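Marked as duplicate of an earlier ticket. Keeping the data here for the record.
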Amino acid sequence: MNSLQIFSGNANRPLAEEICQYLGIPLGRANTTRFPDGEFNFQILENVRGSDVFIVQSTCPPVDEHLMELLIMIDACRRSSADRITVVIPYYGYARGDKKDRPRIPISAKLVANLITTAGANRVLAIDLHAPQIQGFFDIPVDHLFAAPVMIDYFTTNPIDNLVVVAPDLGGAERARAYAKRLNADFAIVDKRRDKSQPGHSEAEVMNVVGNVEGRCALIVDDMVDTAGTLTKVAEALRDNGASRILTSCVHGVFSGNAIERLKNSPLEKVVMTNTLPYREACRAPLFECLSVAPLVAEAVKSIHEESSVSRLFI
């Protein structure tokens, strides 16, 4: 395989630098500034002809801005004769638009997949897609990693007595059940009903807790936290059902609007997340714990580059 080169946009450069440090290679040199009118001014500052190029770019807020950066970087690498272009997307924006469940709405996740493919990407490496079927939206290979090994290693190293793993909704039951199995813990689920009359479906009404949480330490397992509206209501429901301690783990800490304040004012004792999105200064409070996915992504990059199995990294 030709030389390995890694480039990064402006979405999460510290993660890209950490991946390169793990692999023992420098981050590719490129101009990632903007023109006075806001357009992305990108130029690769080294030769990539015939190289195996990886572009690390989360499509995190501001989503449209970072998505456009990604597409421009892919196009630049393609026009510079890179041998293969793999886009590493730790957080995939627009993932919630994965189906047409209401009249006259787009399937945004598919549109983004089309844009990435048309721009010239040859392969995608993603972490904890909000909907697994998004892999099928691409007409190119997709390696779908899970941050579960990182999370489980943390909770194994920092064991919790009398633990019960809680799924915040039916969709997260499989993930929570897998955590419970690996942590040798009990399992519970929160039944909730979303108010679909609200724009964005950001609010949810918790109905009841299925499973015994009284006097237990409850760990809520989810893939992402956006406004934290649902998460805080789940935490309140667990408290009302007698949980002695309440923690949560999420892969993607989006934290839109006043989410951080909501979390600080909630019954949650600890919020464990990863650095798939940039780490905010406000998250340096004792409530938050940030784990790095850089070693996981770096091992996947190494496997793709060496044409070896990536499945060894799956939980």
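See parent ticket for discussion. The chain has a mean pLDDT of 93.
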